[in-house]
Amino acid sequence: MQNFWDEVLAFAEATTKTVGQKLLVDFGQVQADLKADGSLVTRCDRWSDDSLRAAIREKFPDHGVLSEEVEHIFPATDWCWIIDPIDGTTNFTRGIPVWGISLGLLYRGTPVFGYVAMPPLGQSFYGYWPGASGLAIPSGAFCNGRPIHPSEAEPGKNQFFSLCARSTAVLTNPFPCKIRMLGSAAYNLLLVGAGWAIGAVEATPKIWDIAAVWAIVQAAGATWVPLDDLAPFPLEVGQDYSDRPYPTLAVAQAALTEGFRPLVEIVVK
After folding, report:
1. Which of these, 11, 14, 164, 219, could form a disulfide with 127 (CB 3.0-4.6 Å)?
2. What CATH number is attached to the domain comprising 139?
3. DSSP 182
4. Is residue 129 part of a domain?
């Protein structure tokens, strides 16, 4: 099965590179429309979504696809890709270089591979998470081909913790770390897997925000905590995932959950 995983990685690298190069041309140059959920969408999101879905159909015709802009129903296929064509659209429209392209590959409803390219930063993250899939699968998580691991540091004023725009209520009480808010759900959580932050919270991410990073962050060795106590995976065939949020805490070490969870649970109240 190694040849399959080599093909998956090569496909994710080549496809996000091609799409990313086009997006960089339009970066900071497009206007956005407001979607029903209050988020932004641009013609670039739609083009990227179309391009990624077309590439998957050509390379893996028997795989299903669920995407932010078009396909929200989880299909009845063993393999399914979940796409976020631009994670961080607001940053993209304003010329802020923290946005990416996210691809998660699921087997029977659970992510086993994730790939996130951050074109303006020149960074690409990927990881393999076999979980209980029973698949023969590589291991580890990587940034630009180098292994990544979470930090072993304790909370402190020189350690970072990432918030999202909908989790600022966390700051009503003193917080033990320096706060960062980067405008990309995937990147916020990836910081934990990469060892650059010791924790991150996302209050209302959608399935396309978390599918790839769920695999990468855990493959790196960090801990993923669903703040609603509902396991995010496996997904159910025929279900519409357009509106379901997945409130999430990621921490560098499992032992940090006890300290951070009471501080961030306000995001789901």
Report:
1. 219
2. 3.30.540.10
3. -
4. yes
